[in-house]
Amino acid sequence: MNKLITVSAILIFFALGCSKVTQLLPGARGGGIGSGSGGATKASSDPKQDIIDASNKFIALPYFSAKMNGTGQNELKSQVDYVAPDRYHIAYLGGTAAGMEIIMVGNDMYMKTGDKWTKTPGSNASSIPNLRDSFTEEGLKTLSDVKSAGTESVDGKEANVYTYKNVTPKGQFPFESRIWVSQDTGLPMKIVVDYPNGALKQMTVVYDTVTPVTIEPPVK
To answer: How far is CA 43 from the centre of its chain?
Structure first.
């Protein structure tokens, strides 16, 4: 169980290191949540505000998926699915916990080892660091040294690129980030986070805010 909590806790550090708080895009457009808005959004003269705006949109999403690749003392590869307000499905694809899956629904946690799902006795999913903590208003308070780094393409779609420094809301671990924000939707598309301290040295996260996500308890 300690190993489970440790691996889960590492996932929080994927958080953009930036944060978001306010309104969502005005509904689905054709391809679903986060699909095209019909016009490119260029970087403004205030890169910090651009990060805050992207965070506000992200935190309000009803669902998203993220592919994570962490490097350091141990490799971490995982797929994280989220459904508001408190449902997570984490599949470990490589590294120390490869083959394990976790589903959290409210205060209930389920773990899959082999082909069997088991409800973890005495677990409390709310005690595990929230995967969106660094996207919240609190997580944005320590955002610093934000700079625009031009534009790049992510999977054929144009993105504004920014760099910044921050610390995690829980634990106050410092990190530096490079984030790609979609010109089409204003939502984060990708982030690379570097950690100067600890076992985890770098985390790369690629977000899917379009594909619908559903998460249900695997066992009764």
So the answer is: 22
Ramachandran angles phi, psi of 185, nearest 5°? -110, -20
| E strand or H helix that includes residue 208 | strand 200-208
Domain assignment present for 220: no
Specify if 168 maps to a domain.
Answer: yes
In a domain, 215, yes or no: no
DSSP string, 15-42: S-SS---SPPPSS--SSSTT---SS---
Cα 79 from chain centroid? 10
Domain that holds residue 14: 2-22+36-208
> Which range has highest mean pLDDT (63-72, 100-109, 146-155)?
146-155
- DSSP three-state, residue 1: coil
Do you know the residue count of the chain?
Answer: 220
* CATH number of the domain encompassing residue 199: 2.50.20.20
Please report the pLDDT score of residue 199 as a whole number: 83
Phi, psi values for residue 99, rounded to 5°: 95, -15
Please state, rounded to an integer, the average pLDDT across all residues of the chain: 76
Number of separate domains in the chain: 1
Share of the chain above pLDDT 70, in %: 72
Which pLDDT belongs to residue 124?
57
